[in-house]
Amino acid sequence: MALVGTGIRRLALWLQPRVERRLLPATVLMGLVIGGLAIAYSQGTGKAATEVMYSGQAALGPLLANSADYTLGTLTLLVACKGLAYCVSLSAFRGGPIFPAMFLGAAGGIAMSHLPGLQLTPAFAMGIGAMSVTMLRLPLTSVLLGTLLLGSQGLTVMPLVIVAVVVAYVVMLRLSPAPTGRSEADARTGPAPA
To answer: Is 94 helix (H, G, I), strand (E, B) or coil?
Structure first.
């Protein structure tokens, strides 16, 4: 999730100035890209295009409840299409980052539950926590998002979610570029050494 989230963030930051140069035509083009991704996902999987188009708030519960209906290929395509649509939305549209990150994490977690020894509930919660911390950069909030969503089952998987969040946070920080400007404290102490 740290790799996927960092890729989404970097591509969105790369696209944003290009969209801002020609705001109206670029925004329309980005809307068409999102629509095309939703249609491609729907035609390729037979699932609803709304899973890609909307934030994911309403689709999160049904995704978990009907997780047995999703193959690994379907989940991979969902993560790819929703990730690209999320990236385009971050660069051109208004909206919050929380529910798309949670939905992407949930889909990725469910996909990882196909691995031997990883059950659905912990994988779901770990995916939400890992993607949330990658996009929001708020570790404690991400742990809470991954566990409180599951109610009483969340308490039993909380240690796994904490580990997933910490690992994703460290990887995300490692993949993030170093700040280019000097800090405010450095600016007050004088010029940078040559």
So the answer is: coil
pTM of the complete model? 0.85
DSSP code for 138: -
Query: For the segment 32-59, what is each residue's pLDDT rounded down to a tens digit?
Result: 999 999 999 999 999 999 999 888 888 8
Would you state the structure tokens that stand for residue 66, as one six-digit string? 């009907």
For the chain, give the secondary structure using H, E and C: CHHHHHHHHHHHHHHHHHHHHCHHHHHHHHHHHHHHHHHHHHHHHCCCCHHHHCCCCCCHHHHHHCHHHCCHHHHHHHHHHHHHHHHHHHHHCCCCCHHHHHHHHHHHHHHHCCCCCCCHHHHHHHHHHHHHHHHHCCHHHHHHHHHHCCCHHHHHHHHHHHHHHHHHHHHHHHHCCCCCCCCHHHHHHCCCCC
Model confidence over 103-156: pLDDT tens digits?
A: 999 999 999 998 888 899 999 999 999 999 999 999 999 999 999 888 888 889
Q: Which token pair is 119?
A: 């059950």
Phi, psi of 7 (to 5 degrees): -65, -40
Please say whether the beta carbons of 115 and 15 come within 8 A: no
